[in-house]
TrEMBL record:
Signal sequence annotation: 1-19
Coiled coil: none
Protein name: Cupin domain-containing protein
Sequence intervals crossing the membrane: none
InterPro entries: Cupin_2 (IPR013096), HNL-like_cupin (IPR047263), RmlC-like_jellyroll (IPR014710), RmlC_Cupin_sf (IPR011051)
Organism the protein comes from: Mangrovicoccus algicola
Domain Cupin type-2, first and last residues per copy: 61-122
UniProt keyword list: Signal
Superkingdom to which the source organism belongs: Bacteria
Amino acid sequence: MKMTLAALALSLAAPAALAQQMTQTTPLERGGRIGSPETFTGTVFVAPVFGPEMNDVSAGEVTFMPGARSAWHTHPVGQYLVVTAGTGWYQEEGREKQVMRTGDVVFAPAGVNHWHGATDGTSVTHYAIQAVRDGSAVTWGELVSDEDYGG
């Protein structure tokens, strides 16, 4: 009986001993870069939060300085924006521009052409969370014109 209990205890403990441990990274360790002028207008800083190792889902922390914005783009699975600081704008093609503020969560469904960024007078920071399909998480389009941005 003691041998059976000992064997059971070892068999239950073994998977726990082989499990991965939690990790922590700092913003400095994750790095970041200034957004490409091919996909952003103005000053934008993009820092990874986590890569697609979690079921092909990735996230980045994106900070737009006043007047900065993404180009028009779509996502094959959709995208969540979790606004963590400031006030910004987003727009779905064919619709009016909308305001997003600290604490808001914006969802862009798969294939919906849209842009997002800061207002003309305030910066905004958000987490952008999206999944990969067929090796891509985003399809970039044209830069947002000053007319479209201001309109």
